[in-house]
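About this split. The held-out portion is used to measure sequence recovery: a designer receives only the structure tokens and must propose an amino acid at every position. Recovery is the fraction of positions where the proposal matches the reference. Here is one held-out target exactly as it appears in the evaluation file.
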């Protein structure tokens, strides 16, 4: 019998890529979703094959009883918890929902595995995040970097991260956290800066609204290609022992780099920068037209640190490395 994997958050960027990967590997894939019809439509728009290869099930993953029943009856080989309120910016406005989905759901799943006496059978992957780390530790961050989240999103992911370690130590669960740095694709949510830039640059070049308006242009992120990261998730559950792993490219770029590269790629436009902070502007070097401006509205508080990951452990233990460079990522989006 082929292996059975449960994926929470199957309609997300990562969920859909992971489902594709697992199906290619011969798994049966059971995806948990909130709304069957919407989820089918969303997945169909992503996948190049019929959605009916995936078993979709409407489940309230915040409900411990439903989760318990599901794990008891399906007895999966692997569970990947990718469901999340995934925006650090939104978490400030919705801290309760963020903690419930991001921390209580993984707890419910691990409890369900323990209560069903499946600790020796079912392996659990938790999608953790670079946002768990303190900004005082310096860069790059690795698995030993002290935790010190700065927003409810990071705090919820840090709680889940600690619970994974605790279930591993106390209950012998094969539970691993992947500390995922920003990873993008054309399936990324529209609220993220990479998608915002992609769409806004396309519109500006087509005669739409211009300039493209962004927040902190000097913010730096370690951006990778999403399919590389779901491959890392799978590798983490095939390892000899359950452990936590950083998945990152090891190189940070600024938002300024990203918008500049996107203009060059999409419109062969080279930008020249003038001014600083909220006064900074990007001009088309050949026409002098203002293409990028800054709006205070998109700035975030508490953002001095450089989020860049050291993934040596994933390389040494799992043989994982990113395969797509920053410039290739711009092209793929
Ligand atoms: P995050 O790393 O999960 O918060 O992903 P985002 O894509 O939302 O943000 C990445 C970085 O881009 C953060 O440092 C933001 O402060 C910065 N940024 C600058 N301008 C914008 C903007 O207009 N929208 C968003 N979402 N982020 C912006």
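Reference sequence for scoring:
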């Amino acid at each position: 019998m082929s292996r059975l994997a449960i994926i929470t958050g199957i309609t997300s960027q990562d969920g859909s890529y992971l489902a594709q990967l697992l199906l290619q590997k011969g798994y049966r894939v059971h995806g948990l979703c909130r709304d069957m019809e919407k989820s089918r439509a969303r997945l169909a728009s992503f996948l190049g094959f019929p959605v009916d290869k995936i078993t979709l099930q409407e489940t309230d993953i915040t409900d411990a009883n439903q989760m318990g029943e599901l794990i008891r009856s399906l007895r999966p080989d692997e569970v990947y918890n990718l469901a999340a309120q995934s925006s650090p910016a939104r978490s400030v406005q919705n801290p309760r929902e963020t903690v419930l989905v991001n921390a209580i759901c993984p707890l419910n799943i691990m409890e369900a595995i323990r209560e069903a006496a499946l600790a020796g059978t079912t392996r659990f992957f938790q999608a953790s995040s670079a946002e768990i780390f303190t900004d005082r530790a310096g860069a790059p961050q690795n698995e030993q970097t002290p935790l010190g989240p700065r927003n409810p999103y990071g705090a919820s992911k840090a709680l889940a991260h600690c619970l994974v370690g605790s279930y591993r130590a106390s209950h012998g669960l094969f539970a691993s956290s992947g500390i995922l740095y920003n990873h993008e694709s054309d399936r990324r949510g529209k609220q993220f800066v990479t998608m915002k830039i992609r769409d806004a640059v396309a519109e500006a070049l087509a005669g739409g609204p211009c300039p493209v308006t962004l927040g902190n242009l000097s913010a730096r992120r370690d951006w990778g290609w999403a399919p590389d990261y779901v491959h890392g998730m799978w590798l983490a559950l095939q390892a000899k022992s359950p452990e936590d792993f950083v998945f990152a490219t090891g190189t940070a770029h600024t938002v300024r780099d990203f918008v500049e590269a996107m203009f060059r790629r999409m419109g062969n436009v080279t930008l020249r920068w003038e001014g600083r902070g909220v006064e900074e502007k990007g001009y088309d070097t050949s026409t002098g037209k203002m293409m990028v401006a800054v709006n205070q509205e998109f700035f975030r508080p508490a953002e001095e640190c450089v989020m860049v990951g050291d993934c040596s452990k994933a390389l040494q233990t799992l043989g994982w490395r990113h395969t797509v460079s920053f410039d290739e990522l711009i092209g793929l989006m």
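Annotator remark: The pocket of guanosine-5'-diphosphate is lined by residues 88-89, 182, 191-194, 196, 214-216, 219, 221, 255, 298, 300, 303 (CB under 6 Å).
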